[in-house]
Amino acid sequence: MDIAYILLLLLAPFAGFLFNVFFGKKLGHNGAGYLATFAVFVSFLVTHFYFVQINQTAQPVTVKLFDWIQLGKFSIDFGIVLDQLSLLWLMFVTGIGSLIHLYSVSYMHDDENRHKFFAYLNLFIFFMVTLVTGSNLLVMFIGWEGVGLCSYLLIGFWYKNQDYNDAAKKAFIMNRIGDLGFLIGIFLLGHLFGTLDYAALKSAIMSGAEVDHTMLALAALALFIGACGKSAQIPLYTWLPDAMAGPTPVSALIHAATMVTAGIFMITRLNFLFGISSADMQTVNMVIAIVGAFTALVAATIGLVQNDIKKVLAYSTVSQLGLMFLALGLGAYEVAVFHVITHAFFKACLFLGSGSVIHAMHGEQDMRNMGGLKKWMSVTYITFLISSLAISGIPPFSGFFSKDEILMTAFHENKALWVIASLASIMTAFYMFRLLYLTFFKEFRGTDEQKHHLHESPALITFPLIVLAILATVGGLISLPGNSWLSHYLEPIIAYGGHSEHHLDATAYMLMGLAVVGGLIGIGIAYAKYLKKGEVPPADAQMTGFHKLLYHKYYVDEVYDALFVKPINAISTFLRDTFESALSGLVFGLGKATNAIGDSGKMLHNGSIGRYLFAFTLGVVAIITYLFFNKIV
Amino acid sequence: MNTLLAITGLGVLCLLLEIANVRKAIIPLTIVGLLGTLGITVADYGKVESHYSNMIVTNDFSVSFSALFVVLGIFLIALSGDFYRDAQTKISDFVSIKLFMLAGAVAMVSFGNLSMFFLGIEVLSISLYILAASQRLNIRSNEAGMKYFLLGSFASGIILFGICLIYGAMGTFDIVEISELTGSAELPDWFFIGIVLLSIGMLFKIAAVPFHFWAPDVYEGSPTLTTALMSTLAKVVAMATFYKLLTGMNANIYYEYEIVIMVISIASMTVGNVMALRQASIKRMLAFSGVSHAGFMLMTLLNIKTSAGTLLYYASAYALAGIAAFAIVLYVTRNKSNEDTYNFNGLGKTRPVLAAVLTAALLSMAGIPVFAGFFAKFALFTSNIQAGYLIVVIAAVINSIISVGYYFKVILAMYTQEPTEDKKPVPFLFYAVGVVAILLNIAIGLYPSAVINLIK
Amino acid sequence: MGNILNEIGIENYIFLSVILFSIGVFGVLYRRNAIIVFMSIEIMLNAVNLLFVAFSTYHQDAQGQVFVFFSMAVAAAEVAVGLAIVVSIFRNLGSIDLDNLKNLKG
Amino acid sequence: MDVSIVLILLLAGTLVTLFSGKSAGKVALAFGILSLVASIVLLSDYNAGKSINVLATWMENPQIYFALNGDGLSLAMLLLTTSLLPIIIYSTFGSEVKNPSSFYSLILFMGFAMAGTFLAADGFLYYIFWELALIPIYFIALNWGNGDAKERQKAVVKFFIYTFAGSLFMLAGFAYLYTKAGNFLVGNLSNLRLSDQEQFWIFLGFFAAYAIKIPLIPFHTWQAAVYQKAPTAGTMLLSGIMLKMGLYSVLRWQLPIAPYAAKAFMATFLIFGIAGTIYGSIVALRQKDLKKLLAYSSLAHVGLIAAGAYTLTVDGVRGAVLQMISHGFVIVGLFFAAEVIYRRYQTRDISQMGGIRVQAPKFTSMFLILVLASVALPTTFNFVGEFTVLYALSTIDIWFAIIGGLTIILGAYYMLKMFQNVMLGETNAKPFADLTFQEGLTMAVIIGVLFFFGMYPKPINDLITPSIQQILNYTLKS
């Protein structure tokens, strides 16, 4: 019975994908979109069924579908596990997924390749479900690479523009760098334990058998590199802002709510590994925390000055992901998960809101050309405001609770990291409200043509916004300080009992207060700068100094280009033009040299009988002499 | 013995037929006669006999090689009809000279006495001098004849000197007695000098470096059919005789002597192959290729006790491929003033069968499987590895690689170039000889043991 | 006869023959006139014939002398062919200088 | 029934095709499919435990057997050959072929020789098949190839001489082995107790043949030029099957016969393979010619396969075999895609392509799937092989896996770059008709195979594992 349901869960989006690929075009104008939405919604229903079930029984469901790959020491089967963690993830993947599918029906309704778009989205959901539900690391890897593929397809959805294609390619390749790390981690674990199955790995590690802890730490580090790729952490984060080339629903679904959280999912899934208390593993965790914190800070600083509405959101995503990794590094897995969920709500809402704006502005994404939109787009504005408050950590919105927990954990574990994370939070509040003010307040700065067309988006677009805004408001309820449903729910997953919950003591309240004040400071600066003074960011050419450095993202792309891309291409050109022909010439050269000897040999055979006779005699003399000196003759 | 008599008789018959003025019958009759001779020869297989106080000895070695010679002779005579179409009046001379030469060849592998050997080699050589120079009005033919003659007589002198010294040391010309004496008595140095001189004479005949200089010039200048004869029959005969001399007199005793053979073998392969690379004339190219094959065949002397079968096999493979190749060369260069490779352009399109035969022949020489040349090389490699001469094998391998270069030049010309002229009619016998020779080649390539085990 | 051989010693016959043979070889190597080259080759052959006879006596064995007849006959046949070639070359070229025969080379 | 039936079918096909004039293509396809059916029947016989081997004396002295062995490994390679052969023949149907009877006849003959190579259990027989395979491809590339005739000749002759040169060293090795063992049966040769030094030389001799055939760097210089010049069917034969002859031979002949050398110099050969992977990937990056790019991608892949084989672990060898098979399919598919473009644009120059996707969505999708399979996306067959090989490398030394694993990054880089330049971008000015039924079917079959075995490689795995185990037992016991 479970198998049938699970297959339904897994294959509904896949069937949607196949159907849309082959027949999508024939389904009428919006047929493909509704079909795709329905497919995901089916998955959501099944997920919901199991979610309810596991809340009652707390028993995970495991199903082995078939044998997949055999290795000498062990074999890997294609198995599915539905436990607390995977169901939680499935809930928001399929839930938000359904909403975004619905949103896309309207958002994409002018595009001639809609059916492909929905096919890819369905395929993405399929791979995401695989990623989340796989019972071993390799099945997760299928999903892991599969979502990367869908991300590639969707970023480059408007394939006529080669810049978009470049962005898609970049995303895929940077993900692959991480994937190599993931694979190395898999190899090390497989070699150490002879299994990749989570349950088996867990029991092997928990049983305290003698293993090489350095190797384990290395495996963890390699896996973390994989997570960096997928979840856009330093140094592999640069693809995510570029990925905004894709249609906005894609940014919302893949590059904000679901796919990019796969890294957090993976580490949480393997918390029995990352949570080992060995010195080496502590170093690894420290690395994770530091990377996370710095990513949060660096991305936030870049976000301060971006003018592209989606770019700001993209850097904010990177920054928020950094915070989640900070939590992971500090061992607060359920806190990270909590932030993943709230972030999924408000970030999806923000992206969809920005999509709504872009939709109204006919593709315009530069905030310098917007302004005053709340007049025309009240629903979008309100949902956007709610989500912005949520991400800025203003109570009682959901972001407050999750971010506060992270800050609190950081404060307890490492004060320096806490300072960094707090700085990032303040900046977040600033740039989110900078975005809000520039977009929705003051006068409209676009062309008259644009102004003429401004309108609120249709219901198919606003409905998901409203739902998500509600969720962004109340999402914090699942893990209230001191009384966390989430921690309780995730208890069976967290191997080492999780971090001790912080008591609501004076420090905690003080920290909450500080966080709120920080958020308000950020908002205040934005208010003063953009609403009070009515500043508009300068044109690209007029930027100077630090502002310019930030605007150009610290020139990291350029540095990578100079460090990796250009040299590899230069080497390739050199090998192609010089080395290959030299090598080939070497082989040809052997032939040429032999030919040359042949040519000069022709001089020897000059046709003179005298010379022939002389050679003859010489030969005779040589042979006789040789034999004479060897005492034969 | 019977073979020798039959061939000589046929030669005389040819001359008589000319007198009887039945010129047309000469070639068919000769071929039939040679087929009969082949039967007689094969019938002798397995017997060991000696005739005329051990002058002629028949054994498996001589019978097998004689049979090979007769087969080659049949092919060569079959090709003669068209080749001498402009000299019909002299056809009996050409055929009978070839037959006498064949008789010389048979004598050379059947000798039991060095005087018989000497007569055989001289009969063979003189016939070749005549054939080489047989186009009286062609200066190239004259030159070829002259060069061959001068160098050949020079070599004959050395052979004679060698025989003389052996006689001086042993007091006999009978090789059985000589081989008994070599085992027992304290030998004077002359004997070895004699063997060495004799060897040098034979190395000249097989055109081994550095005694090969005549070969390309003579091959190029001689009438093409004579070239075919020299490069197939004459070379194989000389090699078989060389082998027989050394084994018969039990002379190959010293390591240093083997070193000399080894060096000459490697040098021949290398010089032959490298020189062949840059030849425009296919006859010259085949001449140098012949030099390299001589080097290969010399490898059999390094494992002399057991390699008679290998030699027979290699000789058959090489000679059959050579005959097949020359049948095509004869067709292509008919009425042509030279034999340059460009004459073969587009043969693959105009005459696919002939092109295929030539391709197969060249592939066989290059040593590509299923053709006999492949197994021949392989057998050589094995026997030399057994003898411990790895270095020769490696040299042979490298040389095989070089050889592909020039063999494929011709193949390329046939298949990738556009034909320069229209189809000419192909004489039936050219077809027949080419196809039969290459089929025989493939047949022994598929069943090497049929040949290689003839001589135990 | 045997006495003379004993007195002179077989080695000296060999030396004589070798010297004669070498003279022939040098003649072949240095002269360019075809006829003179032929004559030099004849000297080589005759040097050997001389040695044959000497050895024949040394061994008290007639075979060697018989062989000389063979070799003389063969030499005669050879020279006959050779001269025929020389004649036809002379007809074509008007000279019998071997240095003119360099059409075939390379 | 024994395995000789496939050889007989292919040889008969060669002859019949040669004399079937205009309909040669269909006749050849029929024989190709027949041999595939025969192979499948053989497979079921084998699985049923029946013996399908052939052992007959070919000649007594020297002792040479007509010995064909149908164990799992050989059968897997045979199936690869006989399943690719009809695909390759079918793929040519869309283009005009001059002199079709010779063309298809040569293709079948090549199939015959390659099948023989995979089946032969006697070294001598094996060598004959090995060399025979060279002749048809030589003529195919020469007579039906493209580009400047002079350049083509140069490339093809170089290829022939180069590979022939390598093989001769192997022949010398076999000659040596024969003097030791007295026959050529692979079992006996593997049981020889050769000294370390002997093994080293034998290994080296074989390596010369295989390194050139596979090819490993720096012996690969023939490859790109020949792939570029040969007609696409020839390129498919070369890259799809012939490359695997070298790799297969490493497993079947080189490792068991010279185990000491294989073990002692393992690291060296692993480095050879892995270096080839990286090198091929980097050179592929900037290729201007589509077929050349695919050639270098092939170089990269076979490098990794060779590395897997030389790990001497069950996983490595198994991964190598899986990768061989999957690479066979994917590269044939990719070359076919290049051919599809060539049929429409008459060019292989990447800079003249681009903007095809708009006009040919079906083709784009299929091409993309092949590209993704080639970069070993999970769920494709190639992933199974590549994963297994990399895992095996990691068990030797994690650094091998890391450096070898760079291929998944570089591979994605050059393949996606190629895909972007060839297919995406503004609509191309030149019209591009979408796939015909014949072309679509060809690609669909290949894609089907790649996905099926990508998800369910177990049948192949079960087939090859016992043979691999046996080979490694020979290799590792001493």
Would you mind describing this structure in some detail?
The complex is a heterotetramer of chains A (633), B (456), C (106) and D (478). Chain A is 73% helix and 3% strand. Among the domains of chain A are: 269 residues, no CATH class; 71 residues, no CATH class. With 633 residues, chain A is mostly helical. Chain B is an all-alpha fold. Chain B has a two-stranded antiparallel sheet. Chain B is globular and about 70 Å long. The mean pLDDT of chain B is 90. Chain C is mainly α. Chain C has a single domain, classed as Helix Hairpins, CATH 1.10.287. Chain C is 80% helix and 0% strand. Chain C starts with a helix and ends in a 13-residue tail after the last helix. Chain D is mostly helical and 478 residues long. Chain D has one domain. Chain D is built from 20 helices and two strands. Chain D has a two-stranded antiparallel sheet with strand order 1-2. At the A-D interface, strand 1, helix 5, helix 6 and helix 24 of A face helix 7, helix 10, helix 13, helix 15 and helix 17 of D.
Keywords:
heterotetramer, A: about 625 residues, mainly alpha, two-stranded antiparallel sheet, 4 strands, about 75% helix, D: two-stranded antiparallel sheet
Mean pLDDT of chain B: 90
Shape of chain B: globular
What's the number of helices of chain B?
19
Count structural domains of chain C.
Answer: 1
Q: What's the total count of β strands of chain C?
A: 0
What's the shape of chain C? elongated
Distance between the terminal alpha carbons of chain C, to the nearest Å? 54 Å
CATH class of chain C: Mainly Alpha
Low-confidence stretches of chain C: none
Radius of gyration of chain C: 18 Å
Residues in helix, % of chain B: over 70%
Set out the fold topology:
The complex is a heterotetramer of chains A (633), B (456), C (106) and D (478).
Chain A: H1 2-23, H2 31-57, E1 61-70, E2 75-82, H3 84-107, H4 114-133, H5 137-155, H6 162-193, H7 198-206, H8 213-230, H9 239-242, H10 248-257, H11 262-269, H12 271-274, H13 279-303, H14 309-329, H15 333-360, H16 378-391, H17 398-413, H18 415-440, H19 448-453, H20 459-474, E3 479-480, E4 483-484, H21 485-490, H22 506-532, H23 545-551, H24 556-604, H25 609-629
Chain C: H1 2-8, H2 10-30, H3 34-59, H4 63-93
Helix pairs in contact in C: 2-3, 3-4
Chain D: H1 4-18, H2 24-47, E1 54-59, E2 64-68, H3 72-91, H4 100-119, H5 123-132, H6 134-144, H7 149-181, H8 186-191, H9 196-213, H10 221-229, H11 232-257, H12 259-264, H13 266-285, H14 290-310, H15 314-345, H16 361-374, H17 381-396, H18 398-423, H19 437-455, H20 458-477
Antiparallel strand pairs in D: 1-2
Helix pairs in contact in D: 1-2, 1-4, 2-3, 2-4, 3-4, 3-11, 3-15, 3-20, 4-5, 4-6, 4-11, 5-7, 6-7, 7-9, 7-10, 9-11, 10-14, 11-14, 11-15, 11-20, 13-14, 13-18, 14-15, 14-17, 14-18, 15-16, 15-17, 15-19, 15-20, 16-18, 16-19, 17-18, 17-19
